[in-house]
Specification:
Layout (H helix, E strand, L loop, with lengths): L9 H11 L5 H19 L20
Length: 64
Amino acid sequence: MPEQTTAITLEEFRARAALTGLPLTEEDIGHLHKGYLGLLALMQRIPSQWAWAAEPPHVFRADE
């Protein structure tokens, strides 16, 4: 996971969306860009080192 990810601007996102060929409206592009920024923010919260010994293993059984 990279330490710092630079988010693209709305104009850059609009230009990349135009290259897809999808019929996207300005509202669609705005929503997708907002979701992209939200995803980047969530990805920054993912720890780079996991404390595996601190979490018990999760076992899922089909008969329960």
